Amino acid sequence: MEFPSELKYTEDHEWIRIEGDTAFIGITDHAQKELGDIVYVDINTVGDSLGKGEVFGSVEAVKTVSDLFLPVAGTVAEVNDELDAEPELVNSDPYGRGWMVKVTLANPEDTEGLLSAEDYKQFIGE
């Protein structure tokens, strides 16, 4: 499995990439493998200000539906529209084209306490 070192991770299996005051968020390679074939991504929180740990959407796989949790407080600025037509991008490219939301950060300090790639690997027993 892949765990890019430039990303931060959560115990809820989301990843986050910070670019200035913007964060890109998706689910980890481990999470997509655990879920299996992803058939639908449901995110309707664009424009919403959400707190750290709040649900920003859900992802549906063949056998289950799983909530998605925001790793930082902020406003959901954009949803990856590609996922409407190709939800399987979350499986094939979870850290690239399979990103889920772009968030404007409310509090940059929220990133403190997120896991490094090494810490996340240990967390999942990798």
Summarize the structure.
The protein has 126 residues and is of the alpha+beta class.
Describe the structure.
The chain has a 6-stranded antiparallel sheet with strand order 1-2-3-9-8-5. It has a 3-stranded antiparallel sheet with strand order 4-6-7. It contains 4 helices and 9 strands; from the N terminus they run βββαβββββααβα. Helix content is 18%, strand content 35%. The protein has helices at 29-35, 82-85, 89-92, 117-124; strands at residues 8-9, 14-19, 22-27, 38-42, 49-50, 55-61, 65-69, 74-79, 101-105. It has 126 residues and is α+β, with helices and mostly antiparallel strands. A hairpin with a 2-residue loop joins strand 2 and strand 3 (22-27).
Distance between the termini: 9 Å
Work out the number of β strands.
9
Mean pLDDT metric = 95
Secondary structural class: alpha+beta
How much of the sequence lies in strands comes to 25-35%
Query: Residue share in helices?
Result: 10-25%
Please list the strands of the largest sheet in the order they lie side by side. 1-2-3-9-8-5
User: What is Rg?
Assistant: 13 Å
Chain-wise SSE layout:
Elements: E1 8-9, E2 14-19, E3 22-27, H1 29-35, E4 38-42, E5 49-50, E6 55-61, E7 65-69, E8 74-79, H2 82-85, H3 89-92, E9 101-105, H4 117-124
Antiparallel strand pairs: 1-2, 2-3, 3-9, 4-6, 5-8, 6-7, 8-9
